[in-house]
Amino acid sequence: MAPRIAMVAGEASGDLLASHLIRAIRKRLPEAEFYGIGGPKMQAEGFDVRWPCELLAVHGYVDALKRYRSLSSIRKQLLAQILRDRPAAFIGVDAPDFNLWLEGRVKDAGMPSIHFVSPSIWAWRGGRIKNIARSVSRVLCLFPFEKPIYDKAGVAASYVGHPLADVFPLQPDRAAARERLDLPAQRPVIALLPGSRQSEVRNLADTFIDTAALLAQRHPDAIFLVPLATRETRALFEEALHRRQATELPIRMLFGHAVDAMTAADVVLVASGTASLEAALLKRPMVISYRIGKWQYRLMMRMAYLPWVGLPNILCNESLVPELLQDEATPLKLADAIDHWLGDAGARQRLVERFTDLHHQLRQDTATKAADAILPHLQAAHVTA
Fold first, then answer.
1. Which residue ranges traverse the bilayer (predicted)?
2. What is the pTM of this model?
């Protein structure tokens, strides 16, 4: 009998990650069937989409509260199907706020529940790991330092590497990226990435534009690239350009193309998040910045116990790249930090070497390793059945 596997993936990134996992499991179990909440990439691998993953894409606490009732209804309906069908396993891909509840009830019903992409237990104080321990049969970790945390807490965990490390080349071709973007080979290029969310762009656009204005005075031939993910974020950045009276700056806004922009750049100014990891895998010098509400920032700092917020520094366990956050994120300090990278070839080369080591560490063929970690749970469920 073909094993059936229930899955939930949240947003586009989860859809991509889950599609690779489905393909890897099918190499071992060609007859396996998959269903639940997913997206078009999962569907292309034969996944039975009962609800589209876009339904799980919430933006901030207010949006989450507004949609709580509908999301809760969907989750309960899916749980009822799982309890009726009794699949070989449930796999929650990211979306921990949605998935951990499901995983706990699936586990209580005697079926394996696997969480793919560990929540950021290493970033915050508190007992979240206790809830994870109650809810899951196994956690699949993208970062090597996560597994020892779970081991210490008695939670089964497997380190599977980061999928971006499999996709990105070990030696990015900056010349080819500049050619694709029609950029001169010799002029300094600075990529500005104020974030993918509207709230991030609102908080950072003015500061990033003022930083670009300072750098343009120091480097009159500099070009600034601003990749933006949506029409809404592009409109917000355009509004900020007019507000700062900076429409004459040599700024090129791009629809997407963030990876090309970072690859082509000499230095990247980036909001903290996954983009900072992308910049590290692209071996780019960077300055990390972030700005949120005053009280939200105080709460975050009270909860955090690591000295860094940027993934490159966290993964390398040292202050490799500057982090200028909140009140420290002034145009002058950001411009000075970027200028440091532009003027120190030795520091840039040392950073390339450290980021290359990190890339090798994270490049594990994530989908294959994840499938290898999941397969024993499927086999055990088959024996039990």
1. none
2. 0.88
